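Input structure tokens:
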């Protein structure tokens, strides 16, 4: 049984003060929630505050990116050892915005993934195709390539913490949501490629999330699909009540307990 994971990516929003105000409202709404794992990805300036605030709760906190080396002359970068030292538990890798605006390559995602595993961080690896690639019928080719590159050199026995997030670029922040059938098909492609790289047993166990304009109003239709193991949520995770409602709406369609 794959326990669903709902993750909130705050991107470049919320100061430390705003982050703590969110948690003061959000954590009581989640205090008895057991159906999902819940992770929040704040800005780097707020991460330490958020980690301290969620200590002892059923919510965890992660970084939106990291470098793959432990230290070095890399201005503006944060290393996996630094994240581990403040009790960070998760890290996002290869988000499309990082690939587009920070020029992250597939090789970099692979290096970061192996570094995350080496430092006991749960990596959420983001993959997804552009509108142009989808229209050209290249969705499967793009996903297979991104998964193959990310998992290059990763041994199956060390891969259990890995989470994959399917985020079609054409659906991120656009209001366009992939249909449940489209998402399920893409997740099936990803799971088959994971099986080819790490074995069927590992592929059956790995969680694959969907991200792309996920809201309280559409999460239920997505979560009813057995291939969808949760969501990576952007804008709808910025408001405490909205994010809590989204999480509760998804419970009803997974058979979970609130």
């Amino acid at each position: 049984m794959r326990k669903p994971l709902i993750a909130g990516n705050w991107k470049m929003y919320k100061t430390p003060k705003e982050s703590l105000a969110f948690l003061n409202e959000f954590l009581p709404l989640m205090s008895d929630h057991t159906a999902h794992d819940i992770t929040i990805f704040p800005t780097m300036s707020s991460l330490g505050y958020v980690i301290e605030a969620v200590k002892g709760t059923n919510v965890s906190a992660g970084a939106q990116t990291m470098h793959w080396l432990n230290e070095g002359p890399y201005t503006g970068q944060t290393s996996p050892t630094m994240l581990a030292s403040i009790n960070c538990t998760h890290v996002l890798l290869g988000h499309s915005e990082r690939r587009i605006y920070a020029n992250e390559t597939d090789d970099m995602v692979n290096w970061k993934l192996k570094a995350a595993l080496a430092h006991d961080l749960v990596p959420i690896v983001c993959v997804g195709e552009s509108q142009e690639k989808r229209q050209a019928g290249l969705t499967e080719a793009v996903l297979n390539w991104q998964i193959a590159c990310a998992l290059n050199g990763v041994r199956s026995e060390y891969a259990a913490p890995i989470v994959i997030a399917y985020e079609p670029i054409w659906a991120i922040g656009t209001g366009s949501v992939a249909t449940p059938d489209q998402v399920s098909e893409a997740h099936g492609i990803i799971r088959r490629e994971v099986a080819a790289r790490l074995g069927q047993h590992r592929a059956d166990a790995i969680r694959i999330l969907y991200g792309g304009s996920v809201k309280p109003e559409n999460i239920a239709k997505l979560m009813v699909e057995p291939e969808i193991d949760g969501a990576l949520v952007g804008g709808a995770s910025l408001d405490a009540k909205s994010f809590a409602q989204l999480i509760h709406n998804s419970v009803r369609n997974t058979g979970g307990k609130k």
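Residues 5-251 form a domain with the TIM Barrel fold (CATH 3.20.20.70). Residues 180-198 form the longest helix (19 residues).
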